[in-house]
Each structure stands twice: as structure tokens, then as C-alpha cells.
Amino acid sequence: MEVIIRPTAEMAAELVARLVCGRLRSKPDLVLGLATGRTMERVYDRLVATQRSEGLDFSHCRTFNLDEYIGIPAEDDHSYRYYMNHHLFSRINIDVSNTHVPDGMAADLRAETARYERAIREAGGIDVQLLGIGEAGHIGFNEPLSALMSRTREKALTPITRQQNAAMFGGDPNKVPKRALTMGVGTILDSRELLLLATGSAKASILAKAVEGPITAMISASAMQLHSNCKVIVDEEAARDLKERDYYNWIFQNEPEWEEFQD
Ligand code: F6R
To answer: pLDDT tens for residues 141-163?
Structure first.
């Protein structure tokens, strides 16, 4: 795992977007795993800006989202399908038939999760998976005690997660759906590269536990420590509780891989 600390949330998101753009340039039919949430909005704005300024081509790119609420139709502006169309897909030259979000309205949810796993496999697996981290330590909607080998499935959301997402539901956590479909921790770990972005002081404590604490099913983001190609990109606020900050900064300043990203 590598941890990169940028001074601001804007700069952290910019770095993530630049990494994604680089991966897409070297593999136009990239299979890109996507996350929703407030943290990712800056990344998607950057991808849109790069497509406009540099003609970045998404026409062969395939995408798979991490998760979707159960019982919210795609056209509803609370659904993650709506979020993705709004923040990214409608603003770039992607073929919407190449974009995949689990169907939280499927009559048979178990069949839907099996279908989703199959679709990822048939696409050749995920090249790069974007991740945010929840205040409960989740990646995707893998709430505490999610098995580290879990696959795409239905999951009940914790009160902490429903509180975290309440702002999108008029501030009322009771309006946040109780259940969601989510890629499993094992599904996420199968991706060839993980890029986790965390910004803001609300994430500082859980991020330090996930990165520098023990691997535990209580904090599904800690499973990133098992992955051999994982970058955690944070702003100063989210980095607050990390003990090895100096070491991470030294690596960023000295590794040739990061030379082009220096200020
Ligand atoms: C969303 C998702 C979640 C979020 C996490 C952070 O698709 O998978 O794990 O990434 O809850 O959300 P924000 O960015 O809103 O703090």
C-alpha cells in the first residue's frame, strides 16, 4: 500500500483523476470500478474537464459501480445510477450500455448479485477500482463484520452509514434505505488496482485505523492492506491521525513514479 498526502481535498482528487486518465490513455477499453458519494464528485468533475480540454476518450471504457440502494428506482435522484448519470456519464463520451450499476429494483436480488459478479468476470475483471471510505470503515457498503472474502450481495446498512448519507435524503437518516446491494470485499480485492480517496477531518480516525491498524472484518477498508497494488490518497485533514506521515511524504517526494506529480 502507498499513502499519498496532498495539501487540499482539491489536490487529492486531482491526483486520483490524473491516475485514472493515465490508465485510460494506456488502455482505452479500461474496466473502471466506480464509487459514488461526495468525495468522488471532485474526481468526476476533473475527468469531465480532462475529456473536454484534452479529448480524453471514454468510448471504449467499461464501468462497474460498487453499490446501489435497494428499492430506489434508477430515475430517482437518490439512486446511485442517477448520481453516476448526473455527475459523470451524461458529461463524457461513454457508451451508457458499457456502464453497470447493480439493479436495486430487481425482483430477484440474489440472481442480480450473481449476474453482476458474472458481468465483471466476463469483462475480464476490474482494472482500477475507485473507493471512498465510510465513517463506519466500509468500502462499498461492506459494513462492519463483512467477510473479507465476501462477494456481491445484499447488505443491511448501519445507523452510522445511514446518518452519514442522510444529507442526500433531506437530513433524515430514517429516509435512507435500510438495505443495499454491494460488491463484496473479495470482489473489490480481485481488482488489479485500488485507488482510495479520503478527504476531510471526519475521515481521519477511521482512515488511520484502516491503514495502520490490524486487518479486521470490523473495518472492511482494512482489507486493502492485503492488496499488492493499492494507493490511498488523502488530504491533510484526513491524514491527521496517521502515525507514519513523514515516511509517506518521503516516499512521495523520492519515488520516480511520483516525479511528474510534484508541485
Ligand atoms: C459509495 C460507496 C461508499 C462511499 C463512502 C464515502 O458508492 O461505495 O463506500 O465511498 O461511504 O462516502 P462520501 O464520499 O460521501 O463520504
So the answer is: 999 999 999 999 999 999 999 99
- Taking only the tens place, the pLDDT of each residue in 68-112 is 999 999 999 999 999 999 999 999 999 999 999 999 999 999 999
> What's the grid cell of residue 33?
470500478
> Distances in Å between the alpha carbon of 101 and those of 35, 47, 222?
10, 19, 24
How far from each other are the two terminal CA atoms of the chain, in whole angstroms? 22
Is the CB of residue 203 below 6 angstroms from any atom belonging to ligand 1? no
Pick the CATH number of 2-211 from 3.40.50.150, 3.40.50.1360, 3.40.50.970, 3.100.10.10: 3.40.50.1360
The residue whose C-alpha atom lies closest to atom 3 belonging to ligand 1 is 140
Supply the residue whose CA is at minimum distance from atom 13 of ligand 1.
Answer: 37
